[in-house]
Amino acid sequence: MNSAQPIAPASADADEQFLDTVTGIADGPLAGLANRIDQEGYYPLDIMAQLGQAGALGAHLDGNGQRFDLAIAAMQRVSRRCGTTGFLVWAHQVCGLYLEQSGNPALSGERLAAHSQGLRFGGTALSNPMKALSGIERMALVANPDGDGYRVNGVLPWVSHIGAGQYCGALAAVRDAQGNDLGEIMFLLDCDDQVELRQCPAFAGMEGSSTWGIRLNDYPVTPERIIASPARPFIARIRGGFILLQVGMALGVAEGALESMIDVEGQLGHVNQFLDDRPAQLQAELADMMQRLATLARTPYDTSRDYLLDVLDLRAQGAEFALRAAQSAMLHQGARGYVLSAAAQRRLREAQFVGIVTPAIKHLRWEMDQLSREQWPQPREGAQ
Amino acid sequence: MSEQQRAWRQYICLACGLIYDEEQGDPDGGLPPGTRFEDIPDDWECPLCGVGKSDFELYEPPAAAAAPPPAPASAPSRDGIVIVGAGIAGWSVAQAVRALDREIPITLVTACQGDVYHKPELSVAISRDLASEQLARESGADAARRLGVRLLSDTFAVGLSPALRQLRTTRGTLNYRALVLAHGARPALPAVLPASLCWRINHLHGFAGLRAALHGATRRVAVIGAGMIGCELAEDLAQAGHSVTLVDRQQAPLESLLPAPATKRLARHLADLGVTFMGGVEITALSADANGKRIDTRCGQHLEVDEVVAATGLITESRLARQAGLAFERGIIVNARTLATSAEHVYALGDCISLEGAPCRFIEPIARQAEAIAHAMLGIEHPGYGHRTPVVRLKTRRLPIVLRGEHSPDQPWSVVTDDPDYLLMEQRRDGRAISTLSVGQPRTAPPSTTLEMQP
Question: Where are the domains of chain A?
Fold first, then answer.
């Protein structure tokens, strides 16, 4: 796919062919690497490049027909075999979305083309800002106006799918010299020699996500790096799509778990019948979510309250579902799933990641609570 | 059994749902405890809404189950009943289910604290100087304890998948054997009235906010919308000493419900109370500044007030129903007998439903709807809910307005009695009166009219 040129909506055959290619990569080279990626920290840029060439990293872009359904389906196929790579696909896809939606020619031209084809790689550093804009925590990066741009300082604890020569979308709170709050900017952070990448502690899994701490010391944000200023309207516009894309990760991990339950049905079905969350039950729930996903994927830039609630609900349900499916797969597989190289025990950690990655289940519920509350007049000053 | 020994009875007001308990009487209304219903004088009025004795009927509270029915060998599901909403409708279902089954788990999900109160009181409580704590008859936690209900307060229902019997909430996912939607309706605020600038008196929380804002001073209050709630609130606020302007697009208060002779009397009554009626105007902006709030109209008028109360009607929130694929038309469409929605194992009642294409937002039917649902959910034989048009009583205390029967806005009204203090009108079809409207109080007993009421 060529992101520079819009293409007509693909035919059903072309869609199928596309997903077959993605499945071939996932079930082929990726499946063999899953444990090395999870435990040894193998960062699968070779796989990502193949996925980019297949069109899996840019299907959701306006320039490619805004096929969020295909982008999510591709992430799902990948996540069935490796949750970490599914996460990288998501981080890469949303970074592409920032570049394209920025409307900044310095970002949406060749840079986006190379990104969506998997020739260059970059992720997203919006975990802290998303929480900060919702009022859950403080913005970690601060930008001071400097000429026609900004100087940015601060520390982000962990940012994935970055490395030397890569990049990520980031947000900073803008303050003037007196410390006055001037809103926020969103910018592309290039991991060049002005950026200090710091080693993170060893994680329980997902080690191949190339996750680093970032320290910025007067990092220059020039106009060609600006994604959005002010950032809030931009975030409001992309928030639905940002969260919706993650559903592909959740459902992919769950599908992988379902497969490993079905794998042992012939041998262990006579005892597995006594377990909760049996395959048929999980399949029914998966079908229910897939149906809603298909509808929501058609209007990713809808900013209405109802749409956002539907997306948050599906994302939260997907995370809970992945956790239940992974747990159940472990119990269905028994000892064979507990072998260190078994997919069943790896998926437990992948599903846990889906439940804690921003927005985590608790944040999703918090957001839904906020959106559901009625607004009231402020009490008058001096009122009793 | 002698009269003395006969058990105390209760009677329910068909207009507002208030229960008259013979044992307790109505001391404020001159009925000492122990006054039998038949001994109540004919001029006695419902202490809440003011209708007469003839609008009460015998009420039989659901009895406590004698013994828990044995659990079936293979229960359809280990999950219990989940109720969404802790207004009168939600609690009525919990109570009706408990009366039939002491064991089945009940979970009640509510966005508020679940305190039990009688909603019609909200539109007459400012002038009576009642705080929300006084209006709450029982705390949500106490009611939950009494009925053996797991109460999820401060919790929103956000997703529903009937095929999975799954309700998702902001405090986790619940699986149900049967689900009851009793979440009511929310105020329909036109875009020109931002929620951050106007009060809505649709539940205890909104009432408490308005009361706090008005407390301890005389305020200028604009009530937007001269429907039933708007007129009641305007009277109540004026009685409490506030300076009230009632604003509506129509030329007269309650114009969409009542014929002109009645709206004229109502307008005069409100004017006598000091309410300024600003009719035939369309609001184009509501804004706030340091001095209060400002309302602008299309015809160039403006109004400066301290507080704004919107009474612009109710609408049923449709997101959950739409997501779950429930049939919906101005409300959740239910079977008029069983209150079942279009999805299996999902029921609905109260303000959120639509019967024959129209919502029916009155208190009186709720207890009977809850009974029907409780029986249907537990698989116990029951004749079902029989819908009848409730008596409509405007809680304007000095000028009682009562609508009875199958009144229709398309049918012409004719005058039966037109005295200075009393107006009686009726609608006739095929030579028979189908509805009556009375405004004010007759000096002598009103002529009797026979209505073809639905059973």
Answer: 12-120, 124-228, 232-372
**Using one digit for the tens of pLDDT, what is the confidence trace for B40-52?**
998 888 887 777 8
* pTM confidence score: 0.88
Could you give the CA distance from residue A214 to residue A139 in angstroms, rounded to a whole number? 14
Whole-angstrom distance, CA of residue B223 vs CA of residue B233:
8
Quick: pLDDT tens for B70-96: 333 333 446 899 999 999 999 999 999
Domain A124-228 superfamily per CATH: Butyryl-CoA Dehydrogenase, subunit A, domain 2 (2.40.110.10)
Enumerate residues 72 to 131 of chain A having a beta carbon within 8 A of any beta carbon in chain B: none
Q: What is the domain class of A232-372 according to CATH?
A: mainly alpha
Q: Shortest Cα distance from A365 to chain B (angstroms)?
A: 5
Question: If pLDDT is split at 50, 70 and 90, which confidence band does B68 have?
Answer: very low
| Residue A298 to residues A10, B206, B354, Cα–Cα distance (Å) | 14, 37, 30
Which part of chain B has CATH 2.20.28.10?
A: 10-59
Distance from CA of A85 to the nearest CA of B (A): 29
Among A317, A380, A384, beta carbon nearest to B159? A317
Kindly list the residues from chain A whose CB atom is less than 8 angstroms away from the CB atom of residue B171.
365
pLDDT exceeds 90 at position B223:
yes
Task: Quote the radius of gyration of chain B (alpha carbons, Å).
Answer: 23
> What separation in angstroms does the CA of B260 have from each of B269, B395, B415?
14, 19, 11
Q: B403 near B423, Cβ under 8 Å?
A: no
Q: Do domains A124-228 and A232-372 have the same CATH topology?
A: no
Q: Is A336 on the interface with B (CB under 8 A)?
A: no
**CATH class for the domain made up of A12-120:** mainly alpha
Could you confirm whether domain B10-59 is CATH 2.60.120.430? no
Structure token pair of residue A44: 């699968």
What residues in A contact B319, CB-CB < 8 Å? 306, 309-310
Other residues' Cβ atoms within 10 Å of the Cβ of residue A378: 12
d(CA B243, CA B232): 15
Residues of chain B whose beta carbon is less than 8 angstroms from a beta carbon of chain A are 111, 156, 158-159, 161, 163-164, 166, 168, 170-171, 173, 186, 194-200, 205-206, 209, 212-213, 215-216, 306-308, 319, 323
- 3-state helix/strand/coil string of B225-283: CCCHHHHHHHHHHHHCCCEEEEECCCCCCCCCCCCHHHHHHHHHHHHHCCCEEECCCCE
A139-163: pLDDT as tens digits: 999 999 999 999 999 999 889 999 9
Residue A384 forms contact with B (CB below 8 Å): yes
Residues of chain B with CATH 3.50.50.60: 81-185+316-378, 204-313
**CATH-assigned architecture of domain B81-185+316-378:** 3-Layer(bba) Sandwich (3.50)
| Cβ contact B213–A369 (<8 Å) | no
Choose the closest CB to B158 out of A309, A374, A376.
A309
A288:B111 CB<8 A: no
Q: How many CB atoms lie within 10 A of CB A151?
A: 17
In the prediction, which pLDDT does A381 show? 57
**Interface touch A313/B159, C-beta < 8 Å:** yes
> Which chain B residue's Cα is nearest to A283?
B164
Nearest in space to A156 (alpha carbons), one of A178, A183, A123, A111: A123
CATH code of the domain occupying B204-313: 3.50.50.60
Chain A residue at shortest CA distance from B165: A285
